[in-house]
Amino acid sequence: MAKKFIIExxxxxKGEIRIRGAKNAVTKxxxxxxxxxxxxxxxxxxxxxxxxxxxxxLSSIGCVVTHRKEAGILEIDASNLSTHIVPQEYSGLNxxxxxxxxxxxHRFGKAEIPMMGGCDIGPRxxxxxxxxxxxxxxxxxxxxGAYHFKAKRLAGARITLPFPSVGATENLMMAAAxxxxxxxxxxxxxxxxxxxxxxxLQSMGAIITQETDRTWIIQGVGELHxxxxxxxxxxxxxxxxxxxxxxxxGDVLIRGADQLHMLTFLNWLRKAGGEFxxxxxxxxxxxxxSKLKPIAVETGVHPxxxxxxxxxxxxxxxxxxxxxxxxxxxxxxxxxxxxTLNRMGARIQLYNECLGGRDCxxxxxxxxxxxxxxxxxxxxxxxxxxxxxxxxxxxxxxxxLAKGRTEISGVNYIERGYDRVVExxxxxxxxxxxxx
Length: 436
Ligand code: EPU
Fold this sequence. Notes:
2 domains, 4-stranded mixed sheet
């Protein structure tokens, strides 16, 4: 039988948890470690499915990976890479294989990368990655379900991304770190997780400068060396639990929640009536007496409201008094989860139009990328199936809020990105059990 979570709802979250390293930073840094022979060490590594998948990918091409899970320490010895081919079996599991293009080019002068996967939240094309690599001088072809990259040594160039893509920025930054000459990536992503990647690369010997206006300047150096790095804390995990605390009228101290990287989220939370206080080493979120209010907001690239904060926020807004509007501008198909919430009692309507803000890239795409949430609505338990990672967490929060029992299947999605999620909910007083 597939694994399920069973939650007895009508609860509030109370207590204290600790956030661990960010999923969307650690997996990229694991890949970056391959740029240098020797043993790199990452600290603050979360216990999540995406780290496991990435470990398997790295092992399959000859890395020796040692993970001390309790301590959160991951050692990656990339001294003896055995192949430039990422096996087909890793196609479709997550977004990591394409990020190996630059590191394998550096180590072998060629790379073979199977087709991509990840959560089903839009088509998620790779054109920015491929175009960027071509600009750096790589020869790319597509055959038998895999991209084939070739380049003796990449050559620095000026690249302007059509949209500030997180993955493309990271990929090109890693590739440029050891290229011949200087690379300029304009209209680049500048998320804290990317800055964290730049810091790790700098520790490995790279020369990377962040300029104004979304520009990274990377002066290629011939070789990098193994290094040690502490992974930035997960601001999505922190925001997810923050919203859970407030929506359920609970009180949770989130150790490791970093105000600097949550500035925009905290502003919107406050506008929605959520209360918090910053303490040393964390933020306390409480909603016992909060009067939750509707908001109109759009998601966007950093420093905007992260698209990954959208789903838990929607749960909060189902409990606010009035009509909220959310305009999703990063992914065209990120409201697929609303239908299930409506089945649980929410009142969420989706629209093709760009509601409540400026027009975005998806204006005439026919995709339902705006939502109106009417609150407050009591939720009731149901039997539900998770469609993607962030939606999965919002279902968990909905289940905690809902009257009655909720059975959630497809929980491997949640475990891909949330560290010890069952233990953390249990520590906060939620009766959640796992059926295997
Ligand atoms: N895009 C293109 N062409 C490309 C690359 C991206 O059109 O070659 C488009 C995408 O379709 C999307 C937009 O650009 O509409 C942004 O995509 P981006 O490349 O920034 O996303 P990503 O790197 O694939 C990462 C995170 C996502 C997070 C986004 C945005 C990882 C492994 N994934 O994805 O996280 O939502 O950045 O911040 O880092 C999650 O954690 O659940 C998750 C989906």
